[in-house]
Amino acid sequence: MGKIRNFFEQRRLDRSLRWWDRQSRVAKTLGFSELRDLRNKARRFRKRVNKINHIAASRLTLPVIGSKAIKKPQGTEWSYRPEVWSGPVSPSGISSIASKSKIGNELVIFHDCAVSEMTLRQVRNNQESDLAPFGIQLDVFNFEGSFLSIAVEMPPHAVEGLKKEHIIRLTLIIDSERPQEMFARLNLRHGPNTEQIVRELDLSTREMYVEFDLFYTNFKETRAQSLWFDLIFESPSMNQITIRDISVIRRRRANT
């Protein structure tokens, strides 16, 4: 039955293509009324074709949507790639961004600009070296605020079994139109307190990582509540910054 159905579907497709071929040949000689009618049909047809092309491009472009491939050094106990880098989210983009705007459930942008001249959108990765299906692209035009940051929340299981003997590694792949100074801050809430560790990102390379050693904090293991990262941008005016990937892993200290 499948072969028969495919045969008739192919015949219908061939007839449709021949019909459009004929219309393209006679379009120059049609009267205006007939030409408008043909144009309307072509627009309806194109809308459906474009939709299929969009879905196909998204699903067939590598890396595959939903890919969980993450570089894990030896001793990795836990790993995670935030949702905005893993699959499509809603909204997929924001312009004239207000502070505390969200993309998906885990990403929030903060700033203190009176007039926002920024856009943030999810983009599809397609380079051979990319492991994450998606990235986020931040376009900043005139920036007159004193701070700009993106907060990335980790899921609740990020703190399950978390100990002071753990090291948390944040790996990023970043493309920037011009040199950009950036910092990553780990925030670990335990009870009424929040531990914070700041690391400067070395953007001289496209791919980088920073590590946060919990051994030197006052973290109370039995009171762990939540974990998130802030990406802090210094002087971001007139720049396009694309964060192609973010992944987080957890491992134990070598001397424990």
Quick structural summary:
This protein is an alpha+beta fold. It has 3 helices and 13 strands, in the order ααβαββββββββββββ. The strands form 2 sheets. Strands 1, 2, 5, 6, 8, 11 and 13 form a 7-stranded antiparallel sheet that branches. It has a 6-stranded antiparallel sheet with strand order 3-4-7-12-9-10, with no helix packed on it.
SSE blueprint and pairings:
Blueprint: H1 2-26, H2 32-60, E1 76-80, H3 83-86, E2 93-95, E3 101-103, E4 107-111, E5 118-124, E6 134-140, E7 148-153, E8 166-176, E9 181-190, E10 193-200, E11 207-213, E12 224-234, E13 239-252
Antiparallel strand pairs: 1-13, 2-5, 3-4, 4-7, 5-6, 6-13, 7-12, 8-11, 8-13, 9-10, 9-12
Description of the molecule:
It is a single chain. This protein has helices at 2-26, 32-60, 83-86, and strands at residues 76-80, 93-95, 101-103, 107-111, 118-124, 134-140, 148-153, 166-176, 181-190, 193-200, 207-213, 224-234, 239-252. The protein folds into two domains: 2-60; 76-252, Jelly Rolls, CATH 2.60.120. The strands form two sheets. Strands 1, 2, 5, 6, 8, 11 and 13 form a seven-stranded antiparallel β-sheet that branches. The model has no long low-confidence stretch (mean pLDDT 89). By secondary structure, it is of the alpha+beta class. The longest helix is centred in the first third of the chain and has 29 residues, at 32-60. The chain contains three helices and 13 strands.
Which key terms come to mind for this protein?
alpha+beta; six-stranded antiparallel beta sheet; single chain; 3 helices; seven-stranded antiparallel beta sheet; Jelly Rolls; 13 strands; elongated; 256 residues
